[in-house]
Design brief:
Elements (H helix, E strand, L loop, with lengths): L3 H9 L5 E4 L12 H13 L4 E4 L11 H15 L5 E4 L5 H14 L3 E5 L7 H14 L4 E5 L1 H4 L5 H7 L5 E6 L4 H8 L1 H4 L2 E4 L5 H6 L4 E4 L6 H12 L3 H21 L1 H11 L16 H13 L5
Parallel strand pairs: 1-2, 1-8, 2-3, 3-4, 4-5, 5-6, 6-7, 7-8
C-alpha cells in the first residue's frame, strides 16, 4: 500500500493543468450555500477542470472562519468523489492557526494545502520562519502561494529556492504577473518544481516559461476557454494558443473594468448558478452594471 504522502502526490499529478480557484457561494443571510457549491463543482468537473483550489483569495478564505473553510473543503470533497485533486488554501496570520486548519482540511478531504504569506508586517526572518514551519509540519504536500498584491510582500527567489529543498514542498501558485521571476521559479529543482500561473491574463506567457498549468478565478465561468488554450499550447499549435490568449485578455479587461469577483458572480447567476451576494465589505454589481457587463461579454463572441 502506498503511504499517505505518496497517495496525495499521485493524486496531485492530475492538477498539472487548469485548476479552478473556486468562488464560495452564499445565502442571503451570509451562510455558505453548500448545495450550490457542490453543483458548481460537479459542473466544472464535467467541463474537464483538472483540479480545485478551495478558499483562496477568490473563495474569500481569509474572510471566513475556520469552521466555514473546513466545511467548504468537505463539501467539495464530497462533490468530487476523488475525480480531481483538491488544494485547500489554509493561510492565516498565525502559524499555529494555519497548521491547525491544514490538519482539519486534510481530514476533510484535501489532497494538498497552500498558504499565502500573512497580511501583517513581517521581517525577512519571520517570513522565512512562517513558510519553513508550515512546509515541514504540513500533513499533506504544501503549495506556496505568492501574491504580492494581496499580501503586500513577494516571495523572495532565494527563499523559494530554500523551500524547494524541503521534500514536502510540492509547488508554487505564482500570482505576480512577473514572467521573468516565474521563469526563475520554474527552473528550481532542475526544472521539476511545479509552478502554476496565477494571473489568468498571462497564461500563455506563464506556460511559455515552464508553468505546469494555472490556478485562476475566471475559470469558474470560462473553463473551456482556458482548457482549449492549454491544449493548443501543449499540441504546439501556437497560433491557436495565441488567438485564445487574446480572447482571454479581452475577457479579463472587461471583468477588471466591472470588478472581477462580482462580475463572475453575475455571469454565473445569469446561467442559473446562484452564487449569492458577495462577502461584505465587497459589493455586488447593480442592475445597470450587470446588464452592461453581460452585453460586453456577449459581444466578445468567445469561441469556448
Amino acid at each position: 500500500m502506498p503511504t499517505t504522502a505518496t497517495t496525495h502526490t499521485s493524486t496531485l499529478e492530475r492538477a498539472d493543468g487548469i485548476v479552478c480557484a473556486l468562488l464560495t457561494p452564499y445565502r442571503p443571510d451570509g451562510s455558505i450555500a453548500t448545495d450550490v457549491l457542490q453543483a458548481h463543482t460537479q459542473s466544472l468537473i464535467e467541463q474537464g477542470i483538472d483540479g480545485l483550489y478551495v478558499c483562496g483569495s477568490t473563495g474569500d478564505g481569509v474572510m471566513l472562519d475556520a469552521d466555514s473553510r473546513v466545511h467548504c473543503v468537505q463539501a467539495v470533497a464530497e462533490a468530487t468523489e476523488g475525480e480531481v485533486p483538491i488544494i485547500a488554501h489554509v493561510g492565516t496570520n498565525s502559524t499555529d492557526m494555519t497548521l491547525d486548519l491544514a490538519e482539519r482540511s486534510v481530514e476533510a478531504g484535501a489532497d494538498a494545502v497552500s498558504s499565502i504569506l500573512p497580511s501583517i508586517p513581517l521581517t525577512a526572518a519571520e517570513t522565512r520562519s512562517y513558510f519553513l514551519d508550515i512546509v515541514r509540519a504540513s500533513p499533506a504536500p504544501f503549495i506556496a502561494y505568492n501574491f504580492p498584491a494581496r499580501s503586500g510582500v513577494g516571495l523572495p527567489q532565494d527563499l523559494l529556492a530554500e523551500l524547494a529543498e524541503e521534500p514536502n514542498l510540492y509547488g508554487l501558485k505564482n500570482t505576480s504577473g512577473d514572467i521573468f521571476e516565474m521563469s526563475a521559479f520554474t527552473r528550481l529543482r532542475e526544472g521539476s518544481l511545479r509552478v502554476w500561473n496565477g494571473h489568468d491574463e498571462v497564461l500563455y506567457a506563464g506556460l511559455s516559461v515552464g508553468a505546469c498549468g494555472a490556478i485562476g478565478s475566471t475559470f469558474n465561468a470560462f473553463p473551456l476557454l482556458y482548457k482549449d488554450l492549454l491544449t493548443a499550447f501543449r499540441n504546439g499549435d501556437h497560433p491557436e494558443a495565441l488567438r485564445l490568449q487574446h480572447q482571454v485578455e479581452d475577457l479579463v479587461r472587461i471583468l477588471v473594468a466591472f470588478g472581477v469577483m462580482p462580475s463572475l458572480r453575475a455571469i454565473l447567476a445569469s446561467r442559473g448558478v446562484e452564487m449569492g451576494p458577495s462577502r461584505r465589505p465587497q459589493r455586488d454589481l447593480d442592475a445597470s452594471s450587470r446588464s452592461q457587463l453581460l452585453s460586453a461579454i456577449a459581444n466578445l463572441n468567445l469561441t469556448a
